[in-house]
Design a protein that fits this description.
Blueprint (H helix, E strand, L loop, with lengths): L19 H15 L10 H8 L3 H14 L2 E4 L3 E4 L4 H23 L5 H19 L2 H17 L4 H25 L2 H17 L2 H23 L1
Antiparallel strand pairs: 1-2
Length: 226
């Protein structure tokens, strides 16, 4: 069966929250992260709307938000498809992440024993537990949530506001990373080291570690995609 012919239904049942469009966006993002929706796959509106229990107009609004963010693409005369990032796009997202995630890490490092770092450590523990469980879907979800927590607990209002846009690109990059080179031991060690470096608080080491953490992974993905 081709990607276009695959059934477009995702788990979780019908949407019941009042803010339906936001919930639909959240559910589709989750499906993108976990691989329920795959790069290049066509979104068949009628089937997906029925699966989520929402109207076609509500679904279209949600899809257009995700098109604007770059997670989906609108192809003339062919409908909406899941975006398939190019190596150039992955490298570009990595460069943006390096700058902004370094900013977040440096802000967190100012209070290594504070509540914000407690939240980051808790997110790391959840990610490590998911890795140990062997649950690949939960591992991917907690991986994304760990990086989101670093941004959101940094105390920067600006980083928190722009996370939904950048986060969708981070989500795509992480999905490709895991699809091309899943390595639980490597994943666990990289994230333990990243959080340890933030806790230790040396600015030069943090800058170098964040850059290495992000760019080493994307460089390997690009090499494998070539």
């Amino acid at each position: 069966m081709s990607v276009d012919e695959a059934a477009v239904t995702i788990s979780g049942g019908a949407v019941t929250l009042r803010t339906r469009r936001e919930e639909v966006v959240k559910r589709i993002r989750h499906a993108l992260l976990t691989g329920e929706l795959k790069p290049g796959q066509r979104i068949k509106e009628a089937r997906l709307a029925e699966s989520l229990g929402v109207s076609r107009p509500t679904l279209r609004e949600s899809l257009q938000q995700l098109v604007h963010e770059g997670s989906l693409v609108q192809i003339p005369h062919k409908g909406v498809h899941v975006a398939a990032p190019t190596p150039e796009e992955l490298l570009d997202v990595a460069e943006v992440r390096v700058s902004l995630e370094t900013m977040a890490a440096l802000r967190l490092a100012k209070d290594p024993q504070g509540e914000a770092m407690d939240e980051v450590r808790a997110a790391l523990d959840r990610h490590l537990a998911a890795i140990d469980s062997g649950d690949e879907v939960q591992t991917d979800v907690t991986h994304f949530e760990l990086h989101r927590t670093i941004w959101e607990m940094s105390g920067s209002v600006t980083l928190r506001k722009i996370w939904p846009l950048v986060g969708s690109q981070v989500q795509r990059a992480l999905s490709v990373d895991q699809a091309t080179m899943r390595n639980p031991e490597r994943d666990a060690e990289l994230h333990r080291r990243l959080i340890r470096v933030i806790e230790e608080g040396d600015e030069e080491t943090i800058v170098a570690e964040v850059r290495a953490h992000i760019q080493a992974s994307v460089a390997e993905v690009v090499r494998r995609l070539a």
